[in-house]
Design brief:
Chain B: Its EC number is 3.1.-.-. Chain B: This is CRISPR-associated endonuclease Cas1. Chain B: Pfam families: Cas_Cas1. Chain B: Belongs to the CRISPR-associated endonuclease Cas1 family. Chain B: Homodimer, forms a heterotetramer with a Cas2 homodimer. The complex is a heterodimer of chains A (101) and B (298). Chain A is 35% helix and 26% strand. In chain A, strands 2-3-1-4 form a 4-stranded antiparallel sheet. With 298 residues, chain B is α/β, with parallel strands linked by helices. Chain B folds into 2 domains: 74 residues, Ribosomal Protein L15, Chain: K, domain 2, CATH 3.100.10.20; 199 residues, CRISPR-associated endonuclease Cas1, C-terminal domain (Four Helix Bundle (Hemerythrin (Met), subunit A), Up-down Bundle). Chain B is 43% helix and 17% strand. In chain B, the strands form 3 sheets. In chain B, strands 1-5-7-8 form a 4-stranded mixed sheet, covered by helices on one side. Chain B has a 4-stranded mixed sheet with strand order 4-3-2-6. In chain B, strands 10-9-11 form a 3-stranded antiparallel sheet. The longest helix of chain B is centred in the middle third of the chain and has 25 residues. The chains are: A alpha+beta (101), B alpha/beta (298).
Chain lengths: 101, 298
């Protein structure tokens, strides 16, 4: 399961920037990986935990601006085509159960 | 609850930052969200780990396994955190009903012997006279008494190991490479069981059958019995061409992520073991009267 978060938030006033930092920091702490600017992804084991995480992000979504989320299965996510660029090699971008370092 | 097993095999610094385990090696930095981690195995003596990370790992009930310079598990880290009903559970555990303990032990041994027989049948192992090897084990099942007072477990184990590997095979001798696989694999299973017992808020020292004064993990050693066969299978597959290197060890660690078929459907072995442990603890603490029984297809 993958939870994707896309956002576009204003950074005009000091308050806007504070709200943005809060959103960004929450995404990092929750274990999201930035796959592009303003596009974050998180691997989850099931739909239920994806829904819970979505609710937690909801709480820090700034009122001004747009924050969108999408939950897709691992299979759907793996069908992403790279018309340019390539996949990010990172543990957080894989659903491997065993990580050997 | 985590689902990843992280194995560190080389020179690294392992630390904590913003809810992540950070593993910094000579030429790379790997970050894993702490919420994803189930087991952290430090399979090298060339790593350093920070106390801040150890604290966060214990808060999150993550099992940490340490290995010696031969990469064999030597110990693990068990936390105080886990469960708020721990004190209440321990008072119950001290006075667990002896009849329940005997019946559960009988059941565990039956499951163990059944699984051992299935393993012999799967690999078509035979007796010295060439007849199928599993039937004798199945015959023992009816003789298993509450508390296994007649010790059929030991009888079955002797028949099983000699038929599965070889008549010369001896569990105590280092010259058989399979013993390395078995010891390593059993340690990994034992850690998972210990983790689950601690998460549920019980003591691993007080077992239902094992009661060695030197063993911290008597209860874990009891509950591991039906699942040993999965390690035996991997060891058996390598019996002809013995090797015991890092790849073999990783295969044994990854065993927990193997999908198995049970009477209630397909599940990961780690999940099956955890469910079994929880059911056993509920039965022993009088929360249910149903004896835990899991049929596993082997």
């Amino acid at each position: 399961m993958r939870l994707l978060i896309f956002f576009d938030v204003p950074t005009l006033t000091a308050e806007d920037r504070r709200n943005y930092r809060k959103l960004h920091q929450t995404l990092v702490k929750e274990g999201f990986l930035m796959i592009q600017e303003s596009v974050y992804v998180r691997v989850l084991m099931n739909k239920q935990s994806a829904n819970f995480l979505e609710e937690r992000i909801q709480k820090v979504a700034p009122v001004r601006g747009t924050v969108q989320s999408m939950i897709v299965t691992e299979k759907q996510y793996s069908e992403i085509k790279f018309l340019a660029g390539k996949n990010i090699e990172d543990v957080r971008n894989s659903d491997e159960r065993m990580v050997v370092i | 609850m985590g689902w990843r097993t992280v194995v560190v095999t080389k020179h690294a610094k392992i630390s904590y930052k913003l809810e992540h385990v950070i593993v910094q090696t000579d030429n790379d930095i790997v970050q894993v969200p702490i919420a994803d981690v189930q087991i952290l195995m430090i399979a090298t003596t060339q790593a350093v780990i920070t106390t801040h990370l150890m604290m966060e790992l214990s808060r999150n009930d993550i099992k940490v396994i340490f290995t010696d310079n031969k990469e064999m598990p030597v110990g693990e880290f068990t936390s105080y955190y886990s469960n708020l009903s721990r004190n209440r559970n321990i008072s119950k555990q001290i006075i667990w009903d002896s009849d329940r303990k005997s019946l559960l032990w009988q059941n565990i041994i039956k499951m163990k012997i059944t699984n051992e027989a299935k393993m012999l049948e799967k690999f078509q192992r035979t007796k010295y006279d060439g007849s199928p090897g599993h039937q004798d084990l199945l015959d023992l099942l009816d003789e298993v008494k509450p508390g296994d007072s007649t010790n059929r477990e030991a009888v079955a184990a002797r028949m099983y190991f000699q038929r599965l590997y070889d008549t010369k095979f001896n569990r105590r001798k280092d010259e058989f490479v399979a013993n390395g696989h078995l010891n390593f694999g059993y340690s990994v299973l034992l850690s998972l069981i210990t983790q689950e017992i601690c998460c549920a808020g019980y003591l691993t020292e007080l077992g239902i059958h094992h009661d060695s004064m030197e063993n911290f993990y008597n209860l874990s050693s009891d509950l591991i019995e039906p699942f040993r066969v999965f390690v035996d299978e991997i060891a058996f597959n390598k019996y002809e061409n013995p090797s015991f290197d890092l790849a073999d060890k990783l295969e044994l660690v990854n065993l927990l992520n193997q999908t198995v078929t049970t009477n209630s459907g397909d599940a990961l072995l780690s999940g099956v073991i955890k469910t079994f442990v929880r059911k056993c603890l509920k039965y022993l603490s009088n929360e249910t009267d149903v004896l835990p029984e899991i049929e596993i297809k082997i």
